[in-house]
Amino acid sequence: MAGSFGSINTALSGLRYNQVALDVAGNNIANASTDGYVRRRVVGESVSSAQAALWSRYDGHGEGVTVGEVRRMTDPLLDSRVRREHGLLSYLSTSRTILARVEDGVGEPGPNGVHAAMLDLRNAWQDLSLNPGGTAARQQVLGRAESLAQALRSQAANVAGEEADQRVHALNLVSEVNTAASGLAALNHDILVTEQNGTDAGVLRDRRDLLALRLSELTGAVTTVQADGQFTVTVAGTNLVQGKEAGAFVLASGITPAGAADGSPLSYRVDASWGSTVLPAGAAGPGGELGAVTEVLTTRLPAYRAGLDAVAADLAATVNAQQAAGYDASGAAGAPLFSYDPLVGAASLQVAITDPSKLAASSVGGGALDGANADLLSRAGTYPDAYQRLVNGLGTDVAALDRRTANQASLSGALDDAREQQAGVNLDEETVNMVAAQRAYEAAARLMTTLDEVLDTLINRTGLVGR
Which Pfam families does the entry link to (predicted)? Predict the structure, then answer.
């Protein structure tokens, strides 16, 4: 609309637009430290009623401004990369944390570790070979053997305790996955309805982005944006969230509801209205924190426990065999020094002899004071080397995870910085926007005042002549 009254609408549109700009800048400043908040920017659109026509001509010069949209400053591609890299970082950091804790429990190298106890036992046998009749030397062998058995049992208990903790951890993660998936599906529906009603859903979108990121960290989930703006979330290639529906993420086997092992392989399943699907195992299965816990429970800790059991079995077998080849202080054939149950493993290792005189230090019968067999016992078996290889392998795994985690943290940090530059609130920038909107609002108000004076002259003073 051209003319003076049209100019009032133009001034009014400037007041309304800049009021929105002030509100948006103030909201950005208020949420500068809110987790997940994405800054907004007002996008204006010029207003005009000009229409293409053959026999008419628009003689106006624009009719002001209107709010085209309040845009969330996000980049879908960057958001997708952030979710993917955070999922991998969560996987690596969780694996590293668990194995580093196991490594701390091993205590190698150190004076109180299993390897030190092995060397102490071999030294005790060597001392006994030099003094086969000495009661103190025999008692020292039994003491060192008990220390070694206790160190191996303790380490086996540490591994079993870590496995128990991680089973409970897996149950908690599954519960959190279901909570996040249900929340994201509900937000899908709320956002769709809200925007269809013409209401801004920016806050709901912020919350949904946070849940999508958390699902990526928990399971390595992949989020896809559909044509209607809703998120579809897949875990290991299986849909977990579709529109307003969320499937149930289920721990199918491997762990009981109480957190105990049920003897079956660890597996997961998604139950939903569109079907029930068992997720693949191994590298093709869930990622993120849950994937790390699953790998530790199914591969890394069982492998270390099996290595520890093999060391204990070798220790018991070689020492007992060499004991049987010698003679004790009474001249009888040597009895087994260690008892070991292969079905239980290192946790079952015990010293079977309580009488020091039963140690088979001699290589000849008849009660001769001979220490040749004790000398052989000090060198029997390869269990120290096997244990050292086992511990070195664990240390190498932890060191490799340290490097990978540091590299991944650097990459994720760079992506977070890039996203923060776009979506984060810069207080200096918002202050400039606020002042600019303030000045524009004042100018629009001044325009309104000027037009009021013009109309007052036009209406109330036109035609009056001085007398």
Answer: Flg_bb_rod, Flg_bbr_C, FlgK_D1
* Tokens of residue 208, six digits: 């949904």
For 327, the 3-state DSSP assignment is strand
Rounded to an integer, what distance in angstroms lies between the CA atom of residue 443 and that of residue 352?
96
275: left (phi over 0), alpha (psi -120 to 50) or beta: left
Sheet containing strand 245-246, strands side by side: 222-225, 231-235, 238-242, 245-246
What pLDDT is attached to residue 57? 64
pTM of the complete model: 0.89
pLDDT value for 6: 66
C-alpha to C-alpha distance for 230 and 228, rounded to whole angstroms:
6
Distance from C-alpha of 456 to C-alpha of 451, rounded to nearest angstrom: 8
Instruction: Give the bridge partners for 234, in sequence order.
Output: 222, 239
Query: Could you give the CA distance from residue 436 to residue 427 in angstroms, rounded to a whole number?
Result: 14
Q: What type of residue is 436?
A: A
Residue pair 288/177 in contact (Cβ under 8 Å)? The answer is no
| Run of H or E residues at 43 | strand 40-46
CA–CA dist 236, 240 (Å, integer)? 10
pLDDT at 454: 83
Mean pLDDT by 10 residues, the chain (467 residues): 68 92 95 93 84 59 84 93 97 96 89 92 94 91 96 95 96 97 97 91 94 97 94 96 96 94 94 94 92 96 96 96 92 93 95 93 80 92 93 95 97 95 93 94 91 81 64
Alpha-carbon distance of 409 to 88, in angstroms, equals 9
Residues 6+ apart with CB under 8 A from 325: 334, 360, 363, 373, 376
Q: Tell me how far apart the alpha carbons of residues 141 and 127 are, in angstroms, rounded to a whole number.
A: 9
Burial (CB count <10 Å: 0-12, 13-18, 19+), residue 88: buried
Q: Which pLDDT score is estimated for 46?
A: 87
Concatenate the DSSP letters of all residues of 226-295 into one string.
-TTS-EEEEETTEEEEETTEEPEEEEEESB-TTS-B-SSPPEEEEEETTEEEEPPPGGGS--HHHHHHHH
pLDDT in the model for residue 367? 67
Q: What tens digit of pLDDT does each residue of 203-244 get?
A: 999 999 999 999 999 999 999 999 999 999 999 999 999 999
Q: Do residues 336 and 324 lie in contact, with contact meaning Cβ atoms separated by under 8 Å?
A: yes
CB atoms within 10 A of CB 370: 19
